[in-house]
UniProtKB/TrEMBL annotation, chain A:
Native organism: Pararhizobium antarcticum
Any one of the GO CC terms: plasma membrane
Name of the protein described by the UniProt record: Sulfate transport system permease protein CysT
Spans through the membrane: 20-44, 69-93, 105-127, 139-163, 195-213, 219-242, 254-276
Transmembrane helix among keywords: yes
Keywords: Membrane, Sulfate transport, Transmembrane, Transmembrane helix, Transport
Matches recorded under InterPro entries: CysT_permease (IPR011865), MetI-like (IPR000515), MetI-like_sf (IPR035906), Sulph_transpt2 (IPR005667)
GO MF annotations in UniProt: ABC-type sulfate transporter activity
Main location: membrane
Function summary: Part of the ABC transporter complex CysAWTP (TC 3.A.1.6.1) involved in sulfate/thiosulfate import. Probably responsible for the translocation of the substrate across the membrane. Part of the ABC transporter complex (TC 3.A.1.6.1) involved in sulfate/thiosulfate import.
Sequence similarity: Belongs to the binding-protein-dependent transport system permease family. CysTW subfamily.
Membrane topology, from the record: Multi-pass membrane protein
From TrEMBL, chain B:
Example GO BP: sulfate transmembrane transport
An example Gene Ontology CC term for this record: periplasmic space
Signal peptide annotation: 1-29
Protein name, as recorded: Sulfate transporter subunit
Gene3D superfamilies: Periplasmic binding protein-like II
UniProt-annotated location(s): Periplasm
Pfam families (UniProt xref): SBP_bac_11
Keywords assigned: Periplasm, Signal, Transport
Species in which this protein is naturally found: Pararhizobium antarcticum
TrEMBL record, chain C:
Protein name: Sulfate transport system permease protein CysW
Molecular-function GO term, any one: ABC-type sulfate transporter activity
Gene: cysW
InterPro entries referenced in this protein's UniProt entry, alphabetically: CysW_permease, MetI-like, MetI-like_sf, Sulph_transpt2
Keywords: Cell inner membrane, Cell membrane, Membrane, Sulfate transport, Transmembrane, Transmembrane helix, Transport
Domain ABC transmembrane type-1, chain residue ranges per copy: 76-279
Keyword Cell membrane attributed: yes
Native organism taxonomy: Bacteria, Pseudomonadati, Pseudomonadota, Alphaproteobacteria, Hyphomicrobiales
Subcellular location: Cell inner membrane
Stated role: Part of the ABC transporter complex CysAWTP (TC 3.A.1.6.1) involved in sulfate/thiosulfate import. Probably responsible for the translocation of the substrate across the membrane.
Pfam families membership: BPD_transp_1 (PF00528)
Membrane topology, from the record: Multi-pass membrane protein
């Protein structure tokens, strides 16, 4: 692969750095072994169902409800995380206050804390007799064992995704831009809404999409707090497990395939947002 | 084909790592057998395994280690179908063992006749667990469909115990309505309208009721109800025995396909037989399972079992008929249970 | 609180609007900081506190007894074993992938990156399911494995595979942006001075990326030890043999043994905290190296 003719199609651009073959070889073999073979096994299994069976299983009323609950709660949780995640990132980047370093470190806790532990802890807090639940029950607010409980668990799981994608971009914002806006007569609100937020949009969207994608698939923390009522608070990953326990492999495979395709599409969208933001703003996330 | 070769390669690599585990010092005894069981039998088999290991040592001089795995009955059967190397299965439902027999051929289809009492060494029944003082005054099945009652039961699609709950309720309603199945269906549908949470297993449901404080009545295995009373405080709950319940027969079976590969047939068979022995029966009674040899158990243990009129699965045509009719895809449970619609 | 000299203490008025154009009023700051603290407190600190409180409910003595239980001990050992196998595998992969993706331009790079990210957004349950479909009795491989007496599912290999799958992207995702930002000039200089490829990697690239690499490994390790959904599907739950720590938490919880369940959960939470402390120390000590390329 030499760079003699510019117009010839090239798999890669020339470089003096060695090790491309080895690095890509290792990457691709591992990728094929661990990710692609297992996942194509799943797709192959669902294709073996035949289109009509597959469609009937994927559009079964209970499946549709489970998918709707998974996507609906993940969407709501991602929205909450966008609002508070941006505020949190802003506070961490711009202000100084006691305990800031601890708060900054704690944001990563949901990454590191096992989901089952999180689920049990959240249920302990939000059950009608829990620390927070017992305060809310007299007010007639029920959290655990309802879809709100699912949203709470997903907010926990998704928090770091928004903060950690937005934070570095905020740090890169040049104060001069704000000063320029102020000199030109913009007040603080205008500066934030017209100058700062648009620049943050790609990062916020990426954080939203990551939190959303993670929330849709989340299992461990949700099953403890959800109540698991079919049609009401039964999430799609739980329905996969239930179908397996009923020895209904085709239905489990069909739901899994639907979720897999959606996950993949979402990741592609995230990568497109990032590519777009790199072109438009000169930095990615 | 490439994929197959690669998979083989990784298999070899992982095998190397798995053989290391033994080397790392897990205490492997002379013989090891695996009992794959369902949720509420943990305490029973903990005791029973110790007794059996001792007896086997005395009889043969061999040390046997019994490993156990617990979970929802359906999930456990699924694991065995997918290759979990169980020597014996001790599950909540005949239908789950039938599924293993049908899907793997590792258990002969006529497994049920190989041991006494339809291969059920102990039985149980379904009772109500209510909060102390029975504040809602729950006496019998009829009370469960009142508007202000919340009933906790696991999901009959995934939990063996929940299927017995369902059939017990049905049996009562049928008898109360002079054998009318349509009325019974109406009753059970109303009952499930009062269910606020549907856990996947019996243990999850008990935790929801006991630990989370949800619901007024827990439909539970008799043994499970007594155990939670013992573990979590008799000052917080009490047991109500309904006028009619069902004779729940949790069956046991040898997994021929696995014991013959592993060469553990002799010890596994002895293990199951021992459940029928005086010692086995006594241990079962101690853990609130109803033994069929009541005379060998501690009279104090036997006295705890309330006298209740028990219908049987035969009244529903046996599990081969009841399973698809009530709990199959699109079966009666699917028809009556549609919350949020 | 903040000591920004450009911040006049507050009455409302035009003069303040101009002065505060690059910073919010003190009031707004308090409100924002308050909101952020409440949010973190409610969603992150309270659950953590709940775990520790429940574990210590019956005193530290019982806490320690519980951890001495042989089955719990076996679960801890299995969890460590799985992490010891899974993390290095993904470490090697992550470095190779980052090298290929960050140092070279080639066709299909975006697609490759998406594939590497995939396990991130695949439900853990599906991650377990794919291995059931691949190695279970109903699969193509199942009968062959069975006739050769090879146990993958419900044994250590299956648990390792599911863990590797779930933690697949962690190291690579940490390294790719870091190495992209550092560019290739250091390596090019080393090569032009006559260093071999391996020498360049060991003495130039590796020192540049070591902190990012370490952080990636820490996160990968935390996730490997804490994975629940995927492992639950392939484990078989054999007591003392195939239960990892998160599964042991569930089992103890289901046995009404709440103190013990929370005690094991505490170990996992401590692991998470140690991970975070190490990460913060790394950032504090090497802030210059990291600040330039900080993503996490």
């Amino acid at each position: 692969m030499t760079a003699s003719t510019r117009k010839r199609w090239q798999f890669r651009q020339p470089s003096v750095i060695p090790g491309f073959g080895l690095a890509l070889g290792v990457t691709l073999s591992w990728l094929i072994l661990i990710i692609l073979i297992p996942l194509s096994g799943l797709l192959w299994r669902s294709s073996a169902l035949g289109w009509e069976t597959f469609w009937a299983m994927a559009t079964d009323q209970r499946t549709l409800n489970a998918l709707r609950i998974s996507f609906g709660t993940a969407f709501a949780a991602a929205l909450v995380n966008v609002v508070f995640g941006v505020i949190l990132a802003w506070v961490l980047v711009r202000y100084r206050f006691p305990g800031k370093r601890i708060i900054d470190a704690m944001v990563d806790l949901p990454f590191a804390l096992p989901t089952a532990v999180a689920g049990i802890a959240l249920t302990t807090l939000y059950a009608p007799n829990g620390w927070i639940g017992s305060l809310l029950t007299p007010l007639g607010i029920k959290i655990a064992f309802t879809p709100i409980g699912i949203v709470i668990a997903l907010v926990f799981v998704g928090l770091p995704f928004v903060v950690r994608t937005v934070q570095p971009i905020m740090e890169e914002i040049d104060k001069e831009v704000e000063e320029a806006a102020a000199t030109l007569g913009a007040n603080r609100f205008q500066t934030i809404s017209r100058v700062l937020l648009p620049g943050l949009t790609p990062a916020v969207l990426t954080g939203f999409a990551l939190a959303f994608a993670r929330g849709v698939g989340e299992y461990g923390s949700v099953i403890f707090i959800a109540g698991n009522l079919p049609y009401v608070s039964e999430i799609a990953p739980l329905l996969i497990v239930i179908r397996l326990e009923e020895f209904n492999y085709p239905a489990a495979t069909a739901i899994a395939a639907v979720m897999l395709v959606i996950s993949f599409a979402m990741l592609l969208v995230i990568n497109m947002i990032q590519a777009w933001s790199r072109r438009r703003y000169g930095y990615g996330t | 084909m490439r994929s197959k070769r690669l998979t083989r390669l990784i298999t070899v690599a992982l095998l190397a790592s798995s053989s290391q585990v033994g080397g790392l010092g897990f205490a492997f005894a002379d013989t090891t057998i695996l009992n794959v069981s369902y949720d509420p039998t943990r305490e029973l088999y903990k005791d029973f395994n110790a007794a059996f290991a001792e007896k086997w040592k005395t009889d043969t001089g061999e040390t046997v280690t019994i490993q156990t795995s617990h979970g929802g009955s359906g999930k456990q059967a699924r694991s065995v179908i997918d290759g979990l190397a169980a020597d014996v299965v001790t599950l909540a439902l005949e239908a789950d063992i039938d599924a293993i027999a049908r899907d793997t051929g590792k258990i002969p289809a006529d497994w049920k006749g190989r041991l006494d009492n339809n291969s059920a060494p102990y039985t149980s029944t379904i009772v109500f667990l209510v909060r102390k003082g029975n504040p809602k005054g729950v006496k019998d099945w009829g009370d469960l469909v009142k508007d202000d009652i919340q009933v906790i039961t696991p999901n009959p699609k995934t939990s063996g115990g929940a299927r017995w709950n369902f059939l017990a309720a049905w049996a009562w309603a049928r008898q109360a309505n002079g054998g009318d199945d349509a009325k019974a269906q109406e009753y059970v549908a109303r009952l499930f309208k009062n269910v606020p949470v549907l856990d996947t297993g019996a243990r999850g449901a008990t935790t929801t009721f006991v630990q989370r404080g949800l619901g007024d009545v827990l439909l539970a295995w008799e043994n499970e109800a007594y155990l939670s009373l013992e573990e979590l405080g008799p000052d917080r709950f009490e047991i109500v025995t309904p006028s009619v319940s069902i004779k729940a027969e949790p069956p046991v079976a040898l997994v021929d396909g696995n014991v013959d590969t592993k060469g553990t047939r002799q010890v596994a068979e002895a293990y199951l037989q021992y459940l029928y022995s005086d010692v086995g029966q006594k241990i079962a009674a101690k853990h609130y399972y109803r033994p069929f040899k009541t005379e060998v158990a501690d009279p104090k243990d036997i006295a705890r079992f309330a006298d209740v009129k028990l219908s049987t699965i035969d009244e529903f045509g046996g599990w081969k008929e009841a399973q698809p009719k009530f709990f199959g895809d699109g079966g009666l449970f699917d028809q009556i249970y549609k919350p949020g619609q | 609180m903040a000591h920004d000299s450009s911040d006049p203490i507050g009455h409302h008025g035009n003069s303040e609007m101009v002065a505060s154009a690059t910073s919010e009023s003190r009031m707004a700051r308090y409100v924002l900081i308050g909101l952020a603290l409440c949010f973190v407190g409610l969603f992150v600190l309270m659950p953590l506190a709940a775990v520790f409180t429940e574990a210590m409910r019956n005193g530290a003595g019982e806490f320690l007894t519980v951890l001495g239980d042989p089955e719990t001990f076996a679960a801890i050992r299995l969890t460590l074993l799985v992490a010891v196998i899974a993390v290095p595998l993904n470490l090697v992969f992550g470095v190779a992938a980052a090298w290929a993706i960050a140092k070279f331009e080639f066709k299909g790079k975006a697609f490759l990156t998406t594939l590497i990210d995939l396990p991130f957004s695949v439900s853990p349950v599906i991650s377990g399911l794919v291995f059931i479909l691949l190695f279970g009795s109903h699969s193509l491989l199942g009968p062959w494995l069975q006739s050769h007496g090879i146990q993958i599912l419900f044994a250590v290999p299956g648990i390792v595979l599911a863990t590797v799958f779930v933690t697949f992207p962690f190291v690579a995702r940490e390294l790719i942006p870091l190495m992209q930002e550092q560019g290739t000039s250091d390596e090019e200089a080393a090569l032009s001075l006559g260093a071999s490829g391996w020498q360049t990697f060991w003495y130039v690239t590796l020192p540049n990326i070591k902190w990012g690499l370490l952080y990636g490994v820490l996160l990968c390790n935390a996730r490997a030890m804490g994975e629940f959904g995927a492992v639950s599907v392939v484990s078989g739950h054999i007591r003392g043999l195939t239960n990892t720590m998160p599964l042991q938490v569930e089992i103890l919880y289901n046995e009404y043994n709440f103190v013990a369940a929370f005690a094991v959960a505490t170990l996992l939470a401590l692991l998470a905290l140690v991970t975070l402390v190490l990460k913060s120390l790394l950032e504090m000590k090497f802030s210059e190296q990291i600040a330039a390329s900080r993503r996490h």
